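Bug: C-alpha cell stream looks shifted between consecutive jobs. Job 1:
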Amino acid sequence: MLAREAFERFNKAITPEQQRNWGRQEETALLRRVHDPSVMDVFEIQLKKAPTVHAVELRLLEKSPQQGVHHGAASWITRGLAIEEAEIILNIYRKDSGPNSSELKRLTIARRAEKLSAERSRFIEDGRIYLRVDDEFGQSDECEGTSDPMSGQDTLDDEDVLSNDGYSDSSLVEVFGRASCDDPTSSCIPLPSKFGSAYCKANKLHRLVEMELELHVGQANDALHGLRLALADKAVIFRGVVRPATNYSMRTRAWQMVHSIDTSVKQCAAIYRKCRLAMIALGAGPDILDCYQELHRSQLSTSAAAFTQGAHDHRDSQLPWFWTIDIPKDTDSKSWLSEFYRIQWLRAKAAKDHWEEENELVTSEFQWAVNFFQHRSKRWNSIYMARKSEGNCGAACYAARQQAVYDRLAEQAELIWQGMKADGIGFHHGT
C-alpha cells in the first residue's frame, strides 16, 4: 500500500534512536488518549513562540511575592514600558506631521501629550513606593517653563527618536528630576534601567531589575513581531497594489498605504531599539543580547521578489536575523528540522496504521460475508434433511433450492476475492 511504502521509506531515513523516542511518544498518546485527550498534542508542533509582554507579566503576577518587592511591581513596570512606547509613537507622529501641520493635527498632538503627561505623573508617584523613595524632588532647573508639544519637530530625526538618552548610572534624584519635567518629548521614566544595574544592585533593587529585563524581552518580541508583519504587508502591497496601479488616484492611495506601513515599521524599530538599550543598561548577558541583536536600517527594507514564487537571483538571499526570533535560544538551528521530521513520522505512521486497520476491516467484512453465506447454506441443508426425512417433498425442494443459492453466493464471493489477488488471505469453510 502507498501509506505503508511512504512510512517505510521515511522510517529508513531516520536514526534508530529517533524511531524509539517517537514510537514511545505515539504509544503513550494512544494509551492515554481516552482519559487525557491533551496527550494527542504530540502530533502537533511543540516549539514554543517567543513570549509576549503580557505573557511575561502574567507569569510574574502568578509567581509568589518575592522578598523586598512590593505587590504589583510587575504591573507598574509594564505601565512604564507602555508609557515609553506611547512617547515614541507620539514623537514619530509629531515628526511626520511636519512644522506646517493643520490645527486639528496640532490639537490631537496636544491632547495626546496632555494625556501622556498625566499618566506619567501617576506612574512617577507610584514609582516612589516601588523604588522606596522618601524624599520629594522638585523639577529640574532645565525643565523650567512650559513645553510646546510641537517643539523640536523641525529638527527631530530618526536618530533622535532612537537615542539612548537616560540610560546611565544616574541617581534617584537625577532620574526623578528629569522625569518630573512636563515635556512630552522626554522619555525619562523612572524605571530601574534608567539607574543602571550597578546602582540598582547597590540599593537592593535587583528584583526589579530582573522583572524589567524579563518584561523588556517580551516587549522586544512584540516589537519584532509587529515589524515582521509590517514588512510582509509592505511587500504584499508593493506587489498587489502599487505596481498594478494604472492611474494617479490609485497610485496615490497605494503610496498612502505604503507610508502608513513605513510609520509602523519606524515605530516598531524604535521600540525595539529602546528595549535593547534598556537590556544593556540592566546588565543582560550574552545569551540575551546574542538573540536580540542590533537592528540596522538596512534590515528594515523588504523585497517583493522574496514573496514571488519562482523569482530569479534570490537563491543566496538571506532574511535578517529577526525573522527567526521565535526559535527558542536553547535549541540549535536543526531543531526546526527535527520537529518537522518528528511530526511527519508520527503522521505517516498514523496514516499507515489507519489504512492497515481499514484493510483488516475490509478483509474481515469480506470473510464475514462468506461465513454468512456458508452458515445459511448449512442451515438450509439441515432443513432439507429434516423435511426429506418427514416426506415433505415440497419443503425439501424449497430448502434444497435455498441451499444452492447460498452455495453459489459463497463461491462467487471467494472467486471475487481471489480475483482481487489478496496476498496471504485464505478462507476456510465453516469458520
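Job 2, same session, no restart:
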Amino acid sequence: MKFSLKPITALLGLLGLTLALPPKVTYDGVKVVRVDVGDSADEVAALKALVENLNLALWTDEITKNTHVDLEVPKYQYSAFIKATEDLGLQVSVMHEDLGAAIRAENENPGKGSNPGIMEAAAAAADITFFNNYHPYSEHLTFLKKLVARYPTRAEIITAGNSAQGRPITGIHIFGGAGKGNRPAIIFHGTVHAREWITTMVNQYFAYYLLTNYASNPQIKAYVDKYDFYIFPVVNPDGFVYTQTTQRLWRKNRVKNSGSSCVGIDINRNWAFKWEIPGGASTDPCSETYKGRSPGDTPEFKALSSFQNALAARSVGAKLFIDWHAYSQLFMSPYGYSCTVKAADNTELVALAQGYANAARVPYGTTYQAGPICTTIYQATGSSVDYSYDVSKIKYSFTTELRDTGAYGFVLPASQIMPTAVESWAGLKYLLDNMK
C-alpha cells in the first residue's frame, strides 16, 4: 500500500506545526587548529587516539609523520584538547578562532555585492560578476544553461548520469569548428568533495573564459578547435547541496550505507582501480575517506567512468583529465595508490606538473608544489586519477589542490575566487601548450 505524508502534513499545518527537517549544523565557537606532527610513530598514534577519543572532525585526510593535521575542535572540548596536546609536546596553531563566524563571512566580497538578488542576477546574466560570490547549486545550473543559450554553436549541456539521490551530474561540453565530439576530449571534475566550493567556481570560470574569448582571442580559438572540453563543475551534487542547506563542511556523497547509521562514501576512494590496496582509504562508513563496500559501487563512479571511458574509446580519444580539489596548493600526477610504483610516463607527467606550478605562480606569486600524489600529499587508493591513467588510458591525468595552504582552508573567502581562477587558468594554459 502506498503511504502518503500529505494528510499528516495538512493536520500539522492546522496545528501550526511542521515536519521536522534535519537541523542546520552550527559551527559557532568551533576552532579550527593545525597540529604539527613530527617523525615519531608514537606521536602519530597518540594524536590519532586523541582525535578518535574526542571524535574530532578532520580537515586533513590522514594523520602521518612529518606533516600537519588540520581539525575542528568544539568550544567545550578545547581546553581538554590543548592540555592533551601540551602533554604530548605537540605544537598547535589556530586557523579559525570561530568557524561559524568565518562561514558567515565567507561569501562577503567588499564592493562586489553579496545579496541573493544580485547573485541570482549574475547567474542569469552569465557574466563575469558571477565570480564575485559563491552560489546555490540552482544558480550554477542557471549559469551553465545561460552560457549555452548565448553560445549555442559552441556549447551544450551534458549529463554523465545521476547521483545517489537522483540528481543529474550536469556539465558543459565546449567544442570548436569541427563540431561536437570530433576532437580529443579534455575532462574536468569539480566538487568531488562537497565542501571544496572553490573548485566549482574555477571550473565554471574555465567554461566562461573559453566561450567568451573564442571569437576574439586566436589562442583560445585554437584550444577550442583542437580539443573538446567536457567540464563538470559539480560531480557530487547531493553532497554539494547538503553543504549549502545543512552542513557546510560535509565531504562525501549522500548514499545510505547498509548496516550503518553513517551516511556517505568518498567518491574519490571508490574508483575501481587499486581500490583493494590497504592504507589509502577507510573501511569505516563513518570515516571521511570511506571507500564503499566494493570497488566502484557508487552511482557517481558508474556514471562518470562510463562517460569518460566512452570518450576515451573513440578514435580521437581523450587527451587530458583533471580532478580539481582544495586545499593545499598542489598539482599532482599518478600514482596515489603507491609511493614506490611509478607511472610509465612519470618523468613527463612530473615535468608538466612542475610547469603548471611555475605558470600558476606568475599572476599573484601563489606557490604550488608538484609531484606524484602519494609522495606529495599522501597515499590515496581508488582515486579518479589513477583510474583515468591506467584504465581509461588518458595519458595526461592529474589532480590539484587549489588555494590556500591553511589560512582559510575550505572556507576560502569569495574575494579569492577570481585570483584562484586566474592562476588556475595560467597553469592550465601551460598544459594545453605543452602536452605532446
